[in-house]
């Protein structure tokens, strides 16, 4: 999947869950989106790989694309990495859940690719394809484009139904802080 499709599908699954649980916030949405893109850090040519060149190059050489970063071990590792952020930086639980959830949703999306993913790596190199070899896409194909369009339309519909007053207030507050910080350079 391209980064656009990972972004749209993960948000179209995660945002309704956040809305139902009352955890919609700028931090949680950003964390979900970041989590949805993070597994491709092992591909230097990916959207996130081009923005984290040194780390991406190293990860790509050590693991290869769709290596360990595309496994349940990586999901657990990301979850464990967030514990110090919760304890020492007071990062909220919904933000952490959104990050880990976005990461997992990326893997779920990739598991529907024609080749699937090795969910159990490093314990097994066997690829699992979630569509039972009948429902699948290849990156950049027409099927992926249909998935992107459907996810985007659902996301737009979902956003139109949400009460975004609290989110708007949060964005205004963040905008005020950004203006305040930027004013120091003038």
Give structural notes.
This protein is an all-alpha fold and 186 residues long. It is 66% helix and 0% strand. The chain has one domain (3-183). The model has no long low-confidence stretch (mean pLDDT 88).
SSE inventory with pairings:
Elements: H1 3-21, H2 26-37, H3 47-51, H4 53-63, H5 72-89, H6 93-110, H7 142-161, H8 165-183
Helix pairs in contact: 1-2, 1-6, 1-7, 2-6, 5-6
The end-to-end span amounts to 43 Å
Spans of at least 5 consecutive residues whose pLDDT stays below 50 are: none
Q: Can you tell me the number of structural domains?
A: 1
Secondary-structure element order, as H and E? HHHHHHHH
Beta-strand residue percentage? under 5%
Question: Count the helices. How many?
Answer: 8
Task: Specify the overall morphology.
Answer: globular
Q: Give the beta-strand count.
A: 0
SS-based structural class? Answer: mainly alpha
| Percent helix range | 55-70%
Radius of gyration computed on alpha carbons: 18 Å
Keywords:
mainly alpha, 0% strand
Describe what is shown at a glance.
The protein has 186 residues and is mainly α.
